[in-house]
Specification:
single chain, Rossmann fold, alpha/beta, globular, 2 domains, six-stranded parallel sheet, 366 residues
């Protein structure tokens, strides 16, 4: 009989990186090998919709814990509100003696933990330590999370990229559109306030270069920073999904993510899976997937001049751009596929099952 897993996720239609990760799990090897029940705790929309979604999720989880009796609970959390929203489920799982895996996707660790008061730190530690295992997205994040939970309880499971074979073939012959693509929340943490300076420097050299910033957030603040001369070179289509997202990835020549904090960004993995070279920053797990000078270039956050120079290099050298794109595909194919992600998850599940069995045996012997 398959083991039962209750997976706590945001809505499968919500914006954000966690949704991009969990969207690969239904109808995959994971759901073939385990009986997985998904409970959505978050949705986009106004506060009434969000609270209503969370309350329904809590009642659904109570019913699931009491009557379906999962063997483990796998919770996808971020920092801030996401953590506090999932904390109640962690508490309820602990009361029901169901082991919890805390899969942490957050990026701003300083704001979430290090800058908090002693009392708030204690509260975070208390909740995190009720989880039998913590999943980090990279070795760097494992070190950060070891400030909260014992390092031996942390396992690294990197995010994955999906290879878009049709787009990869097109990249070989497609014309240079001089298109730079950003996808994600448009905010300071993602480095979006540095993009206007990058636009200026790139467009001075390549006047017909285009930037597409696909996402929602502080769009007006970015627009205000754009120079009048090049504001028409930048488009803001809003949050893009599905075919629209695929079309932008098809047309793009370079993917840009000038972030200040990251875990293992799905946006970069998605772009690499479509054969794009990457220009980004050396934060979080990004240096693990973007190899300097091979499938992209990485710089310190805020170094807009260097990022602009890298973009110019790719847009003016087709051979280098296409070679870097092929290297991106190779990295995904060899090390960051959905299959490899699920294999690592299943190893964590097996470990938790074994720990639970050992505890039950100990209780019987007593």
């Amino acid at each position: 009989m398959k083991k039962k897993v209750c997976m706590i996720v945001p809505s499968f239609s919500a914006k954000g990186g966690i949704t991009s990760v969990v969207n690969g799990y239904p109808n995959s090897q994971l759901t073939e090998n385990y009986n997985v029940r998904f409970i959505e705790t978050y949705c986009d929309g106004n506060i009434i919709r969000k609270v209503s979604k969370a309350m329904r999720a809590y009642f659904k989880f109570i019913y699931t814990a009491l009557f379906w009796k999962p063997d483990l609970v796998h919770i996808h959390t971020s920092f801030g509100r996401s953590f506090y929203r999932k904390a109640l489920i962690i508490e309820m799982s602990s009361l029901a003696k169901i082991p919890v895996i805390n899969h942490v996707h957050g990026a701003d660790f300083n704001e979430f933990y290090r800058r908090k008061s002693k009392r708030k730190k204690k509260n975070i530690e208390k909740i995190y330590n009720k989880c039998i295992r913590t999943i980090a997205l990279s070795e760097e994040w494992k070190k950060n999370l070891a400030e909260i939970v014992p390092e031996q309880t942390i396992r690294v499971v990197e995010n994955y990229g999906v290879l878009q074979e049709d787009l990869i073939k097109e990249k070989i012959t497609k014309p240079n559109n001089k298109l730079i693509l950003f996808l994600g929340f448009i905010c300071e943490r993602k480095g979006c306030f540095d993009i206007p300076a990058i636009v200026d420097q790139v467009c001075r050299k390549i006047p017909d270069a285009r930037f597409i910033l696909g996402g929602s957030g502080e769009i007006e603040k970015v627009k205000q920073k754009l120079s009048a001369k090049y504001k028409d070179n930048v488009e803001f289509p809003g949050w893009v999904r599905n075919e629209q997202k695929k079309q932008y990835l098809r047309e793009a020549d370079v993917f840009l993510l000038p972030s200040y904090n990251e875990g293992m960004p799905m946006a970069i993995l998605d772009a690499m899976g479509c054969g794009l070279p990457i220009v980004s920053t050396d934060v979080g797990g990004i240096p693990k997937i973007v190899r300097q000078g091979i499938n992209g270039y990485l710089y310190k956050p805020g170094d807009s001049k260097s990022m602009a120079c890298a973009i110019i290099e790719y847009l003016t050298d087709d051979e280098k751009r296409l070679k870097a794109g092929r290297e991106s595909v190779d990295v995904i194919r060899k090390s960051y596929s959905l299959q490899q992600n699920i294999d690592k998850l299943e190893r964590v599940y097996t470990e938790v099952e074994r720990l639970r069995s050992d505890k039950l045996l100990q209780k019987k012997s007593i």
